[in-house]
Amino acid sequence: MKKFLKWISQNFILILVLVAIILFFSLGLSKVRNFSELAYENEYYLGNNCIELEIDDFETSSYKEVITSIMDNGRYNLFNTRMPGQSYSANGIYLNENLKVVPSLIRGRFFTKDDFLAEYEESLVVIGKGLLDKVEKQGEDEYIFFNEKKCKVIGVMGDEKKQKMLDYTLIFNLKDFYNNNQYPKVSNGWYLSSKDKSADLYGVIDKANESMGKNSNTRFTVSKHNIQPNPIKTALKGTSNVTTYFGCFAIVIALNIFIIVKQWIGDRIKEIGVRKAFGAKNSQIYKLVFKEYVIVSLFSSIIALFIQSILIKSDIFDISGNIAFLNFVAITIFSFIFSSILLLISIREINKIQVNNIMKGDV
Fold first, then answer.
1. Residue 91 has what pLDDT?
2. What pLDDT score does 235 carry?
3. Which residues contact 298 (CB under 8 A, 6 or more apart)?
4. Which of 20, 189, 206, 336 could be disulfide-bonded to 82 (CB atoms 3.0-4.6 Å)?
5. Is 204 exposed, middle or buried (0-12, 13-18, 19+ CB in 10 A)?
């Protein structure tokens, strides 16, 4: 025990710095990645190519006429994110191709393009977990009333442990409106998207306007062009202040690693001199120091992993445990490689010094 405590005291500063570095980078990167996934998921309706639409003079046309005029002109996806619900928000959806990103689910499944090819006797919906108190059970099936109609719940969105933006959202099949003229006409919040970056969505709208012009005054206007955001860029933008501080700390910590490793090697100069005086080769000295550093790194990693587990379980950080562990492994490997390179450089410099000078302390 005394040996262990002595070893801790000799390497305390290095252990402390390594634990701090691993924790800081692991939790920091996990936070950025977690934010990026949430941002990506909340805008699930944006494909690689997407335009936002407004519908002028909607009252002169039906939902079926509006939807088919667009969807008959190509294999694209159509959404509306501003449909009114009963104390919750509703998103209409029509898929001709499966989505690149779908909201996370507690249970069940999300819509696929096959749901829009087949004819169902029941209307299908996907709901957020916040709407579960409105659900009625019939045997193994769950139902919720939307637009004065009983709809079958095929999936529940959300996370068991935390709240998400879609928790109070109901997503339904836009084809359910084909024979319904009572639902309010929603002119804003329409999105036409495609996985194909080169898809001519503007051309689709031009054709839709030509088609609508034959029977009504309804027209589509493109208000905005969108693309599915790069998750990392979105995260860095959404956490800009955090990212700035993170970058500054990263530079400071890198300098600290350099200084601490140099100091840790410096404390062993006389020991290295004695070994060289007794005929130790440079390669043997490096192996000895490297072995000791490996032990210190492993010990520091175990402490850091233990602290990280406690922080995640205590919900201090809103981070997925799986993401945090993967980042922990990556950061541990990176810091070990970086420090090992510094070790090699430092030892090579010391090995160039004469034994007499090392023993005298003239280094």
1. 92
2. 46
3. none
4. 189
5. buried
Pairing verdict, β 169-173 and 89-94:
parallel
Q: Give the position of tokens 């043997």.
A: 284
Please give the pLDDT value at position 266: 67
CA neighbor of 25 nearest in space, from 292, 294, 336: 336
Cα 307–chain centre separation: 23
Residue 77: what are its φ and ψ, rounded to 5°? -115, 140
Backbone angles phi, psi at 153, to 5 degrees: -85, 120
Are the C-beta atoms of 124 and 115 separated by less than 8 Å? yes
In this structure, is the dihedral angle defined by the CA atoms of residues 151, 152, 154 and 160, taken in order, positive or negative? positive
Nearest to 327 by CA among 23, 20, 19, 26: 26
Residue spans of the chain under pLDDT 70 = 29-37, 39, 179-182, 226-262, 265-266, 269, 315-328, 331, 346-363
CA 45 to chain centre: 16
Specify the pTM.
Answer: 0.64
Q: Are 347 and 289 in contact (CB under 8 A)?
A: yes
**What's the full length of the chain, in residues?**
363
